Amino acid sequence: MKIEQGWEQRLAMNRRLRNALKGLTAPDAERRRKAMEPFVRATFDMFIRYLYRYLGNEVECEDVLEDVYADIWENPERLRNVTTERELLRTVYLYYMRKRLRRVYRRMNRHLYLAQKDLENLVAPELGTLEMLSRVELTQALTQALERLKARERKAIELWM
């Protein structure tokens, strides 16, 4: 029984956050404005920890969060039916944070990943003997090689050419 209550408390939102969410989704602009600061204070640590796991840079995390909070301010409707902190994090990630997080992550880590196809294009092709010789040098090398062959072998190659 005590374990169940502890679990429910962890899943349930604290009163301050629940009231801030109600204020954010209210139709009254003044009430929304007043609710934004408590919402930011109640969620900042949770969101920053989540972002930091991916970005590893606090400044980048704060930049992403600024944009996320601006989006929440402009369109808080998705948060209307949120009842737990876990649901809040999932909803904010899916609808407000994901695109920005991916964009910043790619920008920060663009040097780490190269597809195999791209890697092959970056490596200079190895030059073989044929590519390094001029046409005259190639003709001379072929003539010398043919002279070393027996008459019958030379005739077979000349017929083939």
From TrEMBL:
Q: Which GO terms describe its molecular function?
A: DNA binding; sigma factor activity
From the UniProt record, give one GO term of the biological process aspect.
Answer: DNA-templated transcription initiation
Q: Does the keyword Disulfide bond apply?
A: no
What InterPro entries does UniProt report for this protein, alphabetically?
RNA_pol_sigma-70-like, RNA_pol_sigma_r2
The record's keywords, sorted A to Z, are: DNA-binding, Sigma factor, Transcription, Transcription regulation
Query: Any stretches that span the bilayer, and where are they?
Result: none
Record has Transit peptide as a keyword: no
Q: What is this protein called?
A: Sigma-70 family RNA polymerase sigma factor
Organism this protein belongs to: Thermodesulforhabdus norvegica
